[in-house]
Specification:
The structure is a homodimer.
Chain A (H helix, E strand, L loop, with lengths): L10 H11 L3 E3 L6 E3 L1 H20 L3 E2 L5 E3 H5 L2 H7 L4 E6 L2 E9 L4 H11 L8 E10 L13 E11 L2 H21 L6 E4 L9 E10 L5 E10 L2 H5 L4 E2 L5 E2 L2 E8 L1 H10 L16 E5 L4 H20 L4 E3 L7 H10 L4 E5 L1 H6 L1 E6 L5 H4 E5 L3 H26 L1 E3 L3 H11 L2 E6 L3 H6 L6 E5 L17 E6 L3
Parallel strand pairs in A: 3-7, 15-16, 15-17, 20-21
Antiparallel strand pairs in A: 1-2, 4-6, 5-6, 7-8, 8-14, 9-10, 10-11, 11-14, 12-13, 17-18, 18-19, 21-23, 22-23
């Protein structure tokens, strides 16, 4: 085990290295892909369970569509193929023979799902139709980064069809609100909800909503999106229905996706110099118990006590590990579990046994006086669950404070551009709406992350014409 | 909605048709693939949740490995590539360019997982290593049948490495026992556990264990398998470790998989002339409530009452739908939900309201006298949960009785072969162990489904030499 690269001065290497050392991912022999190891996959399973419940609560049903899509399908919608064709993986041979028509590995499933919608939607009675799929997708990426950008990733993709544009907008914004809630209240990651500029929209969408985050290195991360698709999109697949009045109409569709990128966002938001930090709600392991003893007599008594503690925590549904490996020193165990970001450590040694106390160690505190607390073994379960809740709250607060400190009100791109390029951060400014002014942001390696609801800036960051809307500008992953 | 084909005389068409009419699957535009619609996917979700708990209870951890595997990997193990090469889908182009080395879409993941095991296993301390993956796989199939055989399917694949052969055998048989338990106690499908003959083993395995079922048309179905792999398999990927004594050894590996084929087994075991029959434990909908009324006054009173009933059932965790669609007649609703195999229907009409009763209708009974029962509305929840349990038990018993009636003790292949070819069924007989005698079974369109533990037959079915083991012979999917 090597020392982690310095998180402050070398965030990118810290990220790569902490993922490998904490056994979250590993390099794979397939270029551009990563192996998600059990500890990392457990984070995704937690997210899946939480999100799946929320999706079902919106009245959306899970289904499954083929991985391989006839190539012609992607070509039916002009903007869609334009957006995705550079990223496709193509199956040309199957069962030892060259295929008559190549199949693409799905980069997203609108095309095949709309083909089915055309069959399933014939009357106004069939609307809304709300489907979700948990799946893997492949997009050919050259510059990969674990979770953030890889050739294959895991996600859910929601696809819905509605009678009116308003209903579609409501669905897309409800999906966005669901995502923002999951980020903030489950992953303790502050989430900015906004609208994408036209140039940053999903290929074939009329409107793209986004949830943006700010990582510790001052770069923004697009954490998930939802889209209201152009009606031409379902129309390209002959999706239409007979309305109550007998006229034939095209439904208004949405799609929305949440990916394993969320695991990257989680890690890049909370980790520190000692490794990962897991917010308790998503933590695969919430508590590790480390017994400390020297003599055989102490060993017997302390192991009996900590086994009882583990049983009590298990009974309360606390995800808890007792590390009773006798080939390792307590210090080695502290290091091991801190690296993995387990939020609470319970220590019990001979003196604690005598006083009927245990020591609780808080993973996120750096102040030594606050890091440890001694509590009665009798109240252990409630002390632990209280501390887990405190850590969950504090992680969100801490990340919010950091975001606030890096969120700047800015007037002129010429002024804030160099600052952004050098230091990162979020810059709220005005925009006239022109693609030319938007393109200027690239000169400072930034992009418009999203359009904001509020309006504090009256002139455009570049041309100084009247601003139509406030925007948030940042360098991004 | 058309009438279903006759289940007795035309089982294959009944199966295809019931899946479409009950909205379990739909044809897809990708040849050889099917769309799993929400009602079918909910069955798979139930199975996944149940099986995932059992897998974790065995100490196995979930992880995720890339979908696309370098082609050279499959060639490292001679028998493995021989078995799988006719079934591969090959990606030759990515991101607009021809790939230097083609990638195969995983048909199973031993090869890429062993590549990782070689990295993760270095010492005896790293064993056992037990990993599971929930994933989609692709095997190029020409003759497809929904769930039973399709180009793409969903599954879990367990992969473990152990210090000794005995431990590997224990793992493979534990996995098999877990599957058998799931089939019988969750899906109410009788399951025969046995060992495959050499010719039927997984490509690269020393031993393949199987769970076989008998469908209503008298054909056997291989419902899942587990394997002890030849040591040469991990050795081909340089998987080895240093043992306590300092010597370098190759671990003993297993793999085991359970697929969406289980949904096919479930449906082919229980369905009847009116449609699907869902065993209550896996049923996406366990109870449908149908209110019956004519006048507005009745409507108000009965809807209030059945909404209360639904609330009570929901509170007890019963998966329950209230069908209050007023555009459909009660008769149309009965038909709709019977087709979908919902095990219990609750009816309430004006007379029931007066007498404070409800009518429970049992989906699996054909005897009219037994099909309906009148119970007090006050005890409804316990009456319903009792009936669900009864139906679960009776479905398993009924399927067991059918299997028993079609399980024949047989001496000579020449005698039972024509009977099997004409009528299906299971034939327990003796076998000398020679591949020549095994090959003769094919003349009657059958195969050895598995070797059995018990020994009732002393001579081989074909050559009449002494039998080494009892076998079960059948025509199969």
């Amino acid at each position: 085990m090597n020392k982690l690269p310095d998180i402050g001065s070398n965030f990118a290497e810290w990220y790569q290295e902490v993922l490998v050392q904490a056994e979250v991912i590993d390099a794979s022999p397939t270029k551009g892909c990563f192996v998600i190891r059990p500890y990392g996959y457990a984070m995704w399973e937690g997210i899946q369970q939480e999100l799946d419940k929320k999706i079902k609560a919106l009245g959306v049903q899970n289904a499954y569509f083929p991985l391989l899509i006839p190539e012609a399908f992607l070509k039916k919608e002009a903007k869609h193929i334009e957006g995705f064709s550079p990223e496709l993986a193509v199956v040309t041979h199957g069962g030892g023979n060259k295929l008559e028509e190549p199949l693409v590995v799905r980069p997203t499933s609108e095309t095949i799902i709309y083909h089915m919608f055309a069959k399933w939607i014939t009357s106004w009675r069939d609307l809304p139709l709300s489907i979700n799929q948990w799946a893997n997708v492949v997009r050919w990426e050259m510059r990969t980064r674990p979770f953030v950008r890889s050739l294959e990733f895991l996600w859910q993709e929601g696809h819905t069809a509605h009678a009116t544009h308003e209903e579609a907008v409501t669905m897309a914004t409800n999906a966005l609100a669901m995502y923002k809630d999951l980020y903030e209240n489950y992953l303790a990651v502050p989430a900015i909800a906004g609208v994408k500029s036209e140039s940053e929209r999903f290929a074939g969408a009329d409107q793209t909503y986004t949830v943006e985050g700010l990582m510790q290195d001052g770069k923004a991360l697009q954490m998930c999106t939802s889209h209201v698709l152009a009606q031409s999109f379902p129309a390209s697949f002959d999706v239409n229905y007979q309305d109550k009045d007998g006229t034939v109409k095209v439904p208004h569709c949405t799609s929305w996706g949440f990916t394993t990128r969320s695991v990257g966002a989680l890690i890049m938001t909370h980790g520190d110099g000692n490794g990962l930090i897991m917010p308790p709600r998503v933590a695969p392991i919430q508590v590790v118990i480390v017994p400390i003893f020297k003599t055989d007599e102490e060993r017997t008594a302390i192991l009996a006590k900590v086994r009882g503690i583990k049983k009590d925590l298990d009974a309360q549904g606390v995800r808890c590990v007792l590390d009773d490996d006798e080939t390792k020193t307590p210090g080695a165990k502290f290091f091991h579990w801190e690296l993995r970001g387990v939020p609470v450590r319970v220590e019990m040694g001979p003196k604690d046994l005598v006083s009927n106390n245990v020591v609780l160690v808080n993973r996120i505190e750096t102040d030594k006086a606050k890091k440890k607390s001694v509590v009665s073994a009798d109240n252990l379960v409630s002390s632990v669950t209280d501390l887990l809740q405190t850590i969950q709250n504090n992680l969100l607060q801490r990340a919010r404070d950091r975001m606030r400190s890096q969120w700047h009100q800015a007037d002129k791109l010429a002024t804030f551009g160099p600052q952004m390029d050098a230091n990162g951060g979020l810059y709220q400014t005005g925009w006239c709406g022109s693609p030319d002014c938007e393109a200027k942001v690239k000169e400072f390696k930034g992009t418009i992350r999203c359009l904001l609801d509020e309006k504090q800036h009256s002139t455009c960051m570049h041309c100084t014409q009247p601003s139509k809307t406030d925007i948030l500008v940042a360098k991004a992953y």
